Amino acid sequence: MTEYHVPVLLGPSLDLLDIRPDGTYIDLTFGGGGHSRGILGRLGKRGRLYGFDQDRDAASNRIDDPRFTLVESNFRFVRGQMRWRGVEQVDGILADLGVSSHHFDTGQRGFSFRFDAPLDMRMNQRATFTAADVINTYDPERLTRLLGEYGEIDTPYKVAACIGRARAAEPITTISGLIGAVKPCTPKKDENKFLSKLFQAIRIEVNHEMEALRMMLEQSARLLRPGGRLVVISYHSLEDRLVKNFFRAGNFSGEVEKDFYGRPQVPFELITRKAVVPSAEEQAGNPRSRSAKLRAVAKR
Predict the structure, then answer these.
(1) Residue 139: exposed, middle, or buried by beta-carbon count in 10 A (0-12, 13-18, 19+)?
(2) Backbone torsions φ then ψ of 133, nearest 5 degrees
(3) Do the bridges between strand 68-71 and strand 224-234 make them parallel or antiparallel, or are there none, so unpaired?
(4) pLDDT means per 10 residues in the chain (300 residues)?
């Protein structure tokens, strides 16, 4: 049996959370529970941990511990979910934004081009909007925009045109159908890299990941008590740029606002001046950690 997900940067993320034994913490991306178990290992009897995950598959990894509560919700709703549970402030929040190994290795979920399956890619299987909807209903302009912005594909208009020609003949409903549709514009030398970018773009769109990330960061800032820590692990430049800007300035443009006297008005103190990356040893043991970047701040 393969492991659900290997927790990335486990030691550094726990250290940067600066866990208080009697504190209240949130793991916004519970998944296989690796980070959550690490947090619980540093909490005392009075400590509390809430784990968020919108994927019902994660419920099978629920931790049997009176200090732990699993919240089956997208992390974009973190503040409302916590207030509903009577929690107004917390001591630390952790988010690992990577897609779990479970999702990539479960072929029928449609996250990986290594398998043939329906075009799905839903993190929340209760949702109805799928990758097939993106591929078959978006007009060429909208497809071009998302492939360029979310996939950072060099010639997104060519890829959108390939998809348009293929779906004009018949709907594209499977992974093999999509790979075949984009074959004419797939570079022969970097096929895997190209397909990774393509699938990333579609996955981000299906799950509204960038919008959810913005909402999560804003709500986390309001949930943290003064001195509380926010630790985020990102995996591609779009995520990391948003996180970096928000940590630096408290907004997504990254421009620091100043008061009448020219003093910076920022909500956080930077704990990590530069992103923390996995060690060579961790990257060798877990290749999917290679693109990870960890950043941490403390609430002022």
Answers:
(1) exposed
(2) -65, -40
(3) unpaired
(4) 74 98 98 97 98 91 97 97 98 93 74 93 94 98 98 97 98 98 95 96 97 98 98 97 98 95 95 97 94 98
Q: Indicate the number of domains in the chain.
A: 2
Q: How many angstroms separate the CA atoms of 97 and 240, rounded?
A: 10
User: pTM for the complete prediction?
Assistant: 0.93
Beta bridge partners of 26: 50, 93
Residue 117 domain-assigned (yes or no): no
Roughly what angle, to the nearest 10 degrees, separates helices 209-223 and 191-206? 60
On whether both 234 and 199 belong to a single domain, the answer is: no
Residues 189 and 216 in one domain: no
- In this structure, is residue 27 part of a structural domain? yes
**CB 109, CB 119: distance < 8 Å:** no
